[in-house]
Design a protein that fits this description.
The chain has five helices and twelve strands. By secondary structure, the chain is α+β, with helices and mostly antiparallel strands.
């Protein structure tokens, strides 16, 4: 609403309301936002013109979130438990990551994981690689957690593949990939069958 040289807005009564507004006007200084607003209605009441629109402002402020400038920033922002699943990543040059993203987009990328268990040493680990046809690759490795009886080669192989899929989701998010494909391989028959048939958690 405009009154003389000032603008005011009436907030919705709640986040779902579309036609019910609070009675108290609030000063509105970001007039430039009106140029980008999606106008829903323009009623005329009591000598004032009201512009009802969907706000072009974000409901959740992005200022609180760390800015993503590089692909690695997505890894930085992951919860620690997800970072541990991925393990330690050998980050390649940006051009290499672009090559991998383009190969995912074209359906030519390949992912391979491997897992190992050393019961005597009470150690389990996994490693993975995602590569493009031209040899560009990103790799990682890390521990496999859990009780000793649970740290089987099957679990290690699954964690390696989980790491591949998490990195793949980061590539899709960062490069806005649509309709891509990643072919994965591992030498654990049970894991291969599960991925072919699918299973419920």
């Amino acid at each position: 609403m405009r009154h003389k040289d000032s603008f005011f807005e009436f907030q919705p009564v709640n986040s779902r309301a579309r036609t019910r507004f609070r009675n108290t006007p609030q000063p509105f200084s970001d007039v430039i936002l009106l140029e980008h607003a999606k106008v829903v209605d323009i009623p005329y009441k009591s000598g004032s013109i009201f512009v009802i629109s969907q706000s072009p402002q974000l409901i959740i402020s992005t200022a609180l979130a760390p800015r993503v400038h590089h692909f690695q920033d997505l890894y930085r922002d992951l919860p620690p438990e997800i970072q541990r699943i991925i393990g330690v990543v050998d980050w390649p040059e940006p051009k290499v990551i672009i090559d991998i993203a383009e190969s995912v987009q074209s359906g030519m990328a390949m992912g391979v994981s491997d897992g190992s268990v050393r019961a005597r040493e009470d150690r389990s680990s996994q490693s993975w690689i995602i590569s493009a046809p031209n040899g560009s690759e990103i790799t990682g490795m890390g521990p496999v957690d859990g009780a000793l009886c649970d740290r089987t080669s099957h679990r290690a192989e699954l964690q390696g593949h989980a790491a591949i899929f998490i990195i793949l989701s980061m590539l899709v998010q960062y490069f806005k990939i649509v309709g891509g494909k990643l072919t994965t391989y591992c030498d654990n028959e049970a894991v291969v069958k599960k991925f072919q048939k699918g299973w419920s958690m």
